[in-house]
What we know:
This protein is of the alpha/beta class. A hairpin with a 2-residue loop joins strand 2 (about 490-495) and strand 3. The protein is globular and about 85 Å long. The protein starts with a helix and ends with a strand.
Amino acid sequence: MQNNLQKDRAAELLRSGRFDEARAAADALLAAGQASPAAARSIVSSRLALAGACLNLARFEDARHYAQGAFVLTDTHFADTDATKFAALEILQDACIAMGRLTEAHDAGERALAIAIAAHGQDSVAAARATQRLGAVLARVGDVSAARVAFIRAKDALMRATTADRADVDDTLATTLANLASTYQRPDEIELAQAIHDQALRLRRRLSGDEHVEIAQLHSNLGLLLSEAGQDDAALRSCERSLALRRRLLPQGHPDVARSLMEVGWMRTRLGNADGATDALLEALLLLSALDMPTVEARAHFLLGSLLAESNAPAAAILFEKLCVNGLQRLRHASASHEHAFLGARQDIYRHLAESLIRSGRLPEALQVISMLKEFELDDVTNGVLRPVTLVRLTPFEQAQADMEAAVRREMRDTLKHTTHLTPADSEGVTAGGAAVLKSWFARLRADFAETDSATAAATAQVTSRRASVPQDDLAAGSIQLQYLLAQDGVEIIVSTAGGQRHYHNAFAPGEVHRLVLALRASIAQRSASWRGHAVALHELLIGPIEAELDDNKTDRLTISLDGVLRYLPLGVLHDGRRHLLERFALTVSAGGHGPGRITEPAPIRRAAGFGVTRALANHRALRGVRDELFAIVGTADNAHGVVDGGIFLDTAFTADALRSALKRRDGIVHIASHFVFRPARENESYLLLGDGTKLTLAQLAELRFDGVDLLTLSACETAVGGGHRQSGSEFEGLGALALNRGAAHVIATLWPIRDFTSAALMREFYRLRFREDFAVADALRQAQLQLLTGRSARGAAGGPRGLLDPDDDDASTDRPAREAHPYYWAPYVLMR
C-alpha cells in the first residue's frame, strides 16, 4: 500500500511540473524493489511509465534516470528474456539518443538486440525492431554503411514476418524504410532514396494518418534529400511541413522542434531569406537553452555563422563558428568512442573556420585552428586516447559578445525549464518573449560587428601583399614555416618567418592535387620514370606561388605543415624542372597538435637504445640488414663501431618491457627497426611487431610517454602515414605523429615500404653526420638522402621491404646506384617535429 501511494505521489508531482520532487519520490522506491522481488515488477512498471512521460515532455535526463533504475531492477530480478527488460532498454536508448549520449545508446541497443535474439530468435520481429533501432544509432555517429546494413536486415525480416499483429510490424517497417532512405546520400542515389522514402510515407499514412510525429520525420528526411538534389524550394516546403507538424504534436521545448527550426533556417539561408533564417535559427537556439544537447547547439552556432557569412558579415560569422568549434572541442574531452566517431564527421567545420580566418587576414588564429584540426584527427584515429584541452581563442570583443549571448540564454534556460506544466498558449507566450529578447540581442551584435567587418575588409584587401605583424618566437632566423590548407577551390598557404606571416591562395580544379599526389606515389611505387612530370606539376601548384618568398629569405630550411592528401606527399621529390626540393632545402614536417603530450623537459640523456627484428615472424619476412644497421648506430661494450653509446635489443630481447624501460630511463635516442602495420581508426589492429613475436598495438603505444626522447627513429614501413598510399588523407600522420604527441622532440618516419639494406645504409650515414659531424637533425637526414640520390651510398638496395607488401620486387638486375637515385629509395624518409 505504501509503495502504491509513493508511486501515485511521484506521478502527480511529475504532472504538476515538480520534477525534482518526483524523482526523489520515485527513487525512494528503488531500495524496496531491490530488496523485494515481489515489489520489483510493480516498481519497474511505474518507473517506465514515468520515463515515458518524461520522454514526451522532452525531459530526457529524467527519462534516462528512470529507465536506468528500471533496468537495474529487471537485471537483478528478471530473466534475460523478460519483455520488461527489453522495454526498459528501448526507453533508455531513446533518451540517450535524444541527449547525444551515443555510446550509451549503442550499448543499450546491443543489449536489447541480444535479449530479442535470445527470446525470439535471429529472424524475429523483436530482433528486427532492435536491429533497426541500433542502425539509427550507427547513422547518428556517422557509420552510414553499417547503419544501412542494419536497416536492410531489419526490413527483410519485417517483410517476411507472418505475425497476426501486422499493424505493429508495419509500424516498425515504416520507420525502418524511412531510416534506410536517409542512408542513400550520394547524388546518384537520390532517386533510390526518394523511392524508398515514398514507400515509407505511404505505409505511415495508412497506419497513422497525416498527424503523426513519424510523418514529420519523413517530411524532414525528404527535405534533406531534395536539398542534396539541388531542389531548395521544394526542400524548404518539406522542412516547413515537418516543423508545422512537430509544433502541433510535440511539447514546445522538444529538441525535434529545434532541429526542424534549424533545417528551415538553413534552407532559408540557401534561398537568400536572411530575415526568415534568423527567426528560425534564433528560436532553435532559444529552445536549446533549456536542453543539454551540446552537439545540436554547436550545429545551431555553425548555421548562424553561415547565415552571417552569406549576409556579408564575416567578423560576426567567425564568432559563431568559433563558438561551434569550442563546443565540439569540449565534447571531445568528455566523449567516448561512438560520440567521438560522431564528432569526427564534423572536421569540415574546423576547415571552414580556418578558411574564414585566412580570408579575413587573421593568420595566427587560423594557424591555431589548423593545429586543433590535427589534434582532432589524431584523437579520432586513437579513439580518444589523446585529448588535448584546447579552445579557440576569442578576441576581447568576441568574448564580450559571447558573454552577452550566454547571459541571455541562461536567463531563457531558467525560464523555459519551468514551462512544461504550463498550458500550450502560456508556454508559447514565454517562448515568443524569449525569442524577441534573443532577436534584439542578435541585432545589436550585428550592428556592433559592422564596424569590425568594414575595417577587416579594408585590411584584408591587401592580405597577400603585406605581412601580419605577429612575432614567431619559435622560428629561427632565416627559417621558414609553410602551412597548407586544402580548400574547395585550391590551396591556402600561410608563410611564416621570424618577421611575420603572409597568406597566398592558389586556385585550381577540385581534386587536382589529390589526383597528382596519387599519381606521383603510384609512379614511384612502380619505379617508373613518369614520376617527374607529376613532381613538376605539384611543385608548380604548391611551391610556385611562394617561390619569390623563398628566394627573398635565402633560407635552406623549411618546416611544413600539411593537410589532407598532402600528408602522403614525399615533399623532397617535388621538382622545379632542374632540381628536387630536397636539393634546395632541409625539410621538416610539422605534425602539429602537440596538445597534452608536449611538455618542457630537461635536456635528454645522450644514450641510445636500439631495437630490432632480424628473423622472419608469422607473415613478416626477415630483415637481414637490421643487425648491421643497429651495430653501426649503437656502441656497446662488445661493439666499438657505433656512433652513440647505449644498448642493443635484437629479436627476443626486443620486448615491450625493454622498450618501456628505455623510455623510463629517458634514453635520448631510440631507434626501432621492425615491421609496422597500420589500420586507420582500428587501434587494436594497428601494431608494431616486437622481436619476441608479440604485437604492440597502437592503443598500447598511445599509453607510452616519449618525453625524454630527443630523437625517435622508426625505421619501419609507413610510420609517417595513416593507412598507406591508397588512402584519401583523412587520417593523421601515423605512428610518428602519435609519438610526437606523447613527448618525442624529433621523429624520423617513413611514407611507404622501405628497402632493408638501403635503409641500413641511409641510417648509418645519418647517425654519423648527426653525432660525429654534429649536423642538425634535418641537415643530417637531408645529406644522407642526397647520398642515395647522387649514387654515393656505401651499400646497395638488395633485401626485402619492411612491410607486408612490396609494390614491385623484381628489380634485382638493375644497376644499384641508378636504382638508389630513384625516389622510391631515398624519398620515403620524413623528419617530423
